[in-house]
Amino acid sequence: MVSNILSIYDLLLNLVFILLITLIVAFITYLYNEYKVRQLLPPGPLGIPLMGYQPFFGKDLHKVVTKLGEKYGSVFTIQMGFKNIVVLNDWEAIKEGLHNDALLGRPKTVLFTVGNTNSSASSPHNWQDTRRFSLQVLRDLGFGKGSMENRITDEIRILIKHVDEANGRRFNIHKCLTPSISNNICHLVFGHRFDYNDPKRVAFDLMLETISKKSIITTAFLSAAPLWLTKRMYSTGAINSRKVFETVAGVIRSEISSHKKSMNPNNKFRDYIDGYLAEMEVRQRKDPNTHFTPQKLAEMVRILFGAGSNAVQDSIEWLLLLCVRYSEHQKRIHEEIDSVVGRDRSPCYADRLHMPFTQAFINESFRYKTKLPFNFMRW
Ligand SMILES: *[C@@H]1O[C@H](CO)[C@@H](O)[C@H](O)[C@H]1NC(C)=O
Ligand SMILES: *[C@@H]1O[C@H](CO)[C@@H](O)[C@H](O)[C@H]1NC(C)=O
């Protein structure tokens, strides 16, 4: 009896021992592999095994990265979680990087897959193809042209009406800037704007709010965490509000299906969705495995929508804040507007050529407050 217990005890001890040895060997193998990989990559700080440099990020990731750049040069490696990330830290390096086709792919990270579990990482080729096609469609729709300017001016008129309604009382401009700015993209993507209190508009605004609240660190973490983990966090609601994203995914799906029904292939595209659907049909006829798919369309709509909204809004809110902080500059801007534009018409883009002070103020705000100090990953 006693010897039986002893031998079970022995067995357990042996198992623990074997487990321990296995773990140690695995850990050493991991360190050795990591070391070999790092030998091939640009220099950089080592960080903590398994976690990488993440614990040292602090609040302002871009400042940490700038400091590392002083030590390691303009191209260096940091480890985030299990991933090694090469940082391009100056204009020359970024320009060279973005001219390299091999670096144009997007990783399969949560930013591009949330709410779209079917999404795949986009290969550099597919990404470039989609980008080229999308720019062409957007240009055909007037992106960057006079017709777009007129729409923006109309949308601004509606914004001003809302501001006037406050009647000099305090109000939160953020609440009407979100739908106002985002409606410009809606015109291009969906072919129409949404009223500020349209439930679809409200769902979009809620999503934009959720995205913009996420700090750059969370974004960096999400880009680096393994996909299974981010998906898990997403499905348990630990990141983002899943419901918000799902509502928006539903709205996008319903927009796409109503476009499918109402679109006339003989007419000009009304918007990006029309353009994509037409191209998808052509491509699918040639190649059933084309990367032009309904899922990809939904993803592109979400990307265009997100990218076209938050960045502009952040810039405008910073400009407003800086105008308040530097009221002497605000006064000069006001004078310039009065003398160049006057009070009888809306401003237009061409006016900028006669408004050096306002332009300099805007330019300086971009230098002073970088909107995206840390860009999303590519591979
Ligand atoms: C994912 O793909 C499957 C099969 O292709 C499809 O049935 C499903 O609806 C897709 N899910 C989403 C969220 O697009
Ligand atoms: C502001 O930046 C724009 C775009 O880079 C440039 O064309 C313009 O000359 C700049 N204006 C001033 C006053 O700095």
UniProtKB/TrEMBL annotation:
The keyword NADP does not apply. One of its GO terms (cellular component) is endoplasmic reticulum membrane. SUPFAM superfamilies: Cytochrome P450. One of its GO terms (biological process) is organic acid metabolic process. It is a peripheral membrane protein. Its main location: endoplasmic reticulum. May be involved in the metabolism of insect hormones and in the breakdown of synthetic insecticides. PANTHER family: CYTOCHROME P450 508A4-RELATED, CYTOCHROME P450 FAMILY. This is Cytochrome P450.
